[in-house]
Design brief:
Its main location: cytoplasm. Pfam families: Mga, PRD, PTS_EIIA_2. InterPro entries: Ascorbate-PTS_EIIA_comp, Mga_HTH, PRD, PRD_sf, PTrfase/Anion_transptr, PTS_EIIA_type-2_dom, PTS_EIIB_2, WH-like_DNA-bd_sf. This protein is α/β, with parallel strands linked by helices. It folds into 5 domains: 69 residues, Arc Repressor Mutant, subunit A (Orthogonal Bundle); 189 residues, no CATH class; 100 residues, PTS-regulatory domain, PRD (Orthogonal Bundle), CATH 1.10.1790; 131 residues, Response regulator (Rossmann fold, 3-Layer(aba) Sandwich), CATH 3.40.50; 136 residues, 3-Layer(aba) Sandwich (Mannitol-specific EII, Chain A). The protein is 55% helix and 10% strand. The protein contains 30 helices and 13 strands. It has a 5-stranded mixed sheet. Strands 6-5-7-8 form a 4-stranded parallel sheet. The chain is globular.
Length: 670
């Protein structure tokens, strides 16, 4: 293989997705040279191991391994340097799966740096481990070793392996360092696939890809150290589940594993599954009750009645069963999209964060940010579901990550494209087994297909949605024949046979002319209510508790947004359930369903300078009087208000302020 081609391949394998311009600058080649070399490499494999399009150049981890075996393995090393974050986790894995001690020189050789650099790395690692209750001991004769509770050590090992796997060419790195072999990973992957079928769980592509490495390195530690240890599971009896024996049998020939090792490895498999686990917890009623309270909290904060409520309840329960295990046992969950999701959907994240208390009562501590994000994805997907409409095209969503992310993508795309029937969200592995033909594929993982494919990010921000809308619309316009054929097929029973050909020509000419309605339904969902000074009341006089609802709703009635019956029903429900209608400290949201007499969506923010005492001893300082929309169009504004009232400084400015224009500006701030 030529030197320049190998330089190009090395660059691509050590990077994630890059643009053509970045490759040209890094390798000092022209556009045509890079394109030709990529074609030559692909031709040598008789398939596209390197995927190149207008959005970038990408090699999957599977293809990287294929290239490594062909051009590097047994000839030269792929890695000549490791960044500090990679060294950090590589050192941990070496210390945790090798012999009990590792010398400074050995660690320097493994990490391809000097001993002084390793000494600096060890200082940072030691400080981090002390916070976890672990310690690094040093012996001049033997070297370094990590000591502490075995359960904490194994969780540390699992977290380090996951981080290496999520670095560029991490699988090659583990093999190049002699930490795993291809045959070991192949064996465990095949066994996991069989266990999937036997116990009825569906691992995502990502989980099935990572678990063999995690299991193998934990097994290696267990066999190297071969010590007795234990950990408490408190009230959940894993051994008596139907899943545990199947996973235990999967590891039948690893004779060095004791019962505790097998239990820990089983829990890694069971708790890795985010949503679709068939795991049955013996104390399931507790989670069921907590889920019902959680959904009621969401409905209360957003003033909605969630449709297909029982389905959402089951989805949340299926998610929380393995999540409860993870939290009780201290397993770390990685959600690479957590920060991106919170940036894009901070308001819904904060609503869910306020609503998860019933689950936190079970585990006796706060849910992690990553767990709350997964729940937020489920909730957001349910809120933005749209009614089924007659569609022209069919499409699928492919996602390598967890089911929650796939579901969020699916409902987002359904909201954006009412003329596309999305038949489901699948892993790449699942889609390959489907026989259905579709018109479009929306995928977070680059794939090569004769079907029109749109590569999209896992979280679609506003700009991504705009760009995608233009791309898909252009594809629809350019495909006038398919649009005509599908549309005529769907309405053929309304068209006389003798007129079919003429109608088809008219419709096809219509599509060719570009007269296509591209109204963005998702944008409609995001439209915000604009508060004027008429929507704000600053009340100086004292109001009695019994008068609160009628007084707060009178502006809505005056604007003919609601009927008197709506006020009467709200009056009854609020005084019975007012403690469930608190959306922030001292902020109440009296409301009932719109069918009781809502004519149009409306809000009135009423600020009481003399707080009203509640029967339970609390205070009412703000009332958000709501006329909810039957189509839930009020939700985005209410989410924004929830977020605003969580900001103590902003809440104080509203409660204490007298400038109605300044309050209006705060309420309308996005």
């Amino acid at each position: 293989m030529g030197g320049v081609r190998k330089k190009l391949l090395t660059y691509l394998m050590l990077e994630n997705e890059v643009t053509l311009n970045e490759v040209m600058a890094a390798i000092n080649l022209s556009n045509s040279d890079v394109t030709n070399m990529i074609n030559e490499i692909n031709q040598s494999f008789d398939k596209d191991v390197i995927i190149s399009d207008q959005q970038g150049i990408y090699i999957s981890e599977k293809s990287k391994m294929l290239c490594y075996k062909s051009f590097f393995q047994g000839k030269e090393k792929l890695f000549t340097y490791h960044e500090v974050n990679v060294r950090y986790n590589l050192i941990l894995i070496e210390l945790l799966v090798d012999n009990e001690y590792s010398s400074l020189q050995k660690l320097a050789d493994v990490c391809l740096v000097s001993k002084n650099t390793i000494l600096n790395d060890m200082k940072a690692i030691k400080n981090d481990l002390e916070r976890k209750g672990l310690d690094i001991v040093y012996s001049r004769k033997k070297g370094y070793s990590i000591t502490g509770l075995e359960f904490t050590i194994r969780n540390l090992l699992v977290a380090a392996v996951k981080k290496i796997l999520r670095s560029s060419s991490g699988r090659i790195l583990l093999e190049e360092k002699g930490l795993i072999t291809e045959s070991e990973i192949f064996l465990l992957r095949r066994r996991l696939e069989r266990v999937e079928a036997r116990i009825g769980i569906q691992l995502t592509d990502e989980q099935l890809d990572e678990l063999p490495y995690i299991l193998q390195l934990v097994i290696r530690r267990a066999c190297k150290f071969n010590r007795k240890w234990s950990f408490r599971i408190e009230k959940y009896d894993i051994k008596n589940t139907v899943e545990y024996p199947q996973i235990k049998n999967m590891l039948w020939d690893y004779h060095c594993l004791n019962e505790t090792d097998l239990l820990y490895l089983s829990l890694q498999v069971l708790s890795s599954n985010m949503v679709e686990s068939a795991l049955q917890i013996s104390d399931g009623d507790e989670i069921s009750v907590a889920t019902e309270k959680f959904i009621r909290n969401i409905e209360g904060y957003l003033a909605i009645r969630i449709s297909r409520r029982s389905e959402l309840r089951e989805k949340v329960i299926l998610h929380m069963r393995p999540a409860i295990y993870r939290n009780l046992l201290g397993f770390q969950i990685n959600n690479p999209l957590a920060e991106e999701f919170i940036r894009e959907y901070r308001e819904i994240y904060n609503v869910v964060l306020k609503s998860v208390h019933p689950f936190e009562q079970i585990i006796h501590h706060k849910l992690s940010k990553q767990e709350v994000v997964y729940l937020s994805m489920i909730v957001l997907g349910w809120i933005y579901q749209t009614e089924e409409t007659e569609a022209i095209f069919e499409a699928v969503v492919l996602c390598q990550s967890g089911t929650s992310i796939s579901k969020l993508l699916l409902v987002t795309l359904q909201s954006m494209f009412s003329d596309i029937d999305f038949i489901g969200a699948y892993s790449v592995r699942q889609f390959e087994q489907l026989e259905d033909e579709v018109d479009f594929i929306f995928t977070t993982v680059p794939i090569k297909s004769s079907t029109t494919t749109f590569l999209i990010p896992s979280i679609l921000d506003k700009q991504s949605r705009i760009d995608l809308k233009h791309r898909v619309t252009k594809e629809m316009k350019d495909n006038s024949y398919t649009m005509t054929r599908k549309l005529i097929s769907s309405i053929s029973h309304y068209i006389p046979t003798e007129s079919m050909e003429e109608v088809s020509k008219i419709v096809e000419n219509f599509f060719r002319s570009g007269n296509i309605d591209v109204e963005d339904n998702f944008k409609k969902k995001e439209e915000q209510f604009i508060f004027s000074i008429d929507h704000i009341s600053i009340v100086e006089k004292k109001i009695k508790w019994e008068e609160l609802v009628i007084f707060s709703m009178r502006s809505l009635l005056k604007r003919k947004s609601i009927s008197q019956n709506y006020i009467n029903q709200t009056n009854i429900v609020f005084f019975e359930q007012y403690e469930q209608m608190i959306i922030a400290p001292d902020v109440f949201l009296p409301h009932v369903s719109p069918e009781y007499g809502v004519y149009k969506m409306d809000f009135q923010v009423v600020i009481f300078k003399n707080p009203i005492r509640t029967p339970s001893g609390g205070e009412v300082k703000i009332v958000v009087a709501l006329a909810p929309s039957v189509d839930n169009e009020h939700v985005s504004t209410l989410i924004r208000l929830n977020n605003l009232f969580l900001n103590q400084e902003a809440l104080s400015q509203i409660i204490e302020g007298n400038n109605i224009f300044a309050i209006k500006q705060l309420l309308n701030k996005k």
